[in-house]
User: What shape does this take?
Amino acid sequence: MAVRACGLIIYRRLQSTPSSKVTDGIEYLLLQTSYGTHHWTPPKGHVDPGEDDLQTAFRETQEEAGLQASQLTLIEGYKKELHYPVRGKPKTVIYWLAEMKDCNTEIKLSEEHQAFQWLKLEDACKFAEYEDMQATLKEVHQFLCSKE
Assistant: This one.
């Protein structure tokens, strides 16, 4: 059976200048793991017994980034499921999209991560080495652009 994990792709909107497009001010939160290859990823983690997927996504975000569900707005209409092998075993990761209510809220990392960055789409794609994560970030950005 596939390992199952869930997380949130979190973004914030910086104050935009009147001449800029709204989507120019969007930055995505990526966390750098303190283990393995120190890859960059949105907050995510394994589903605990008795938890539903969305509960897992919010719990992991609280544990890994110190963000409470009350500090985020879940964006309706976006959910992404990724499938890839980890050490030869199938893994499924489900992401939802959430916006920071206050773009200045402090991020508090757990021991699982050693750094975080707020990144515009282009930089976020460079930090997220995996192609499926890059494609997901681009898809999220298109989704947000289409909602404007």
Remarks:
- The CA atoms of residues 12 and 100 lie 5 Å apart.
- The two ends are 40 Å apart (CA to CA).
- DSSP finds three helices and seven strands in the chain.
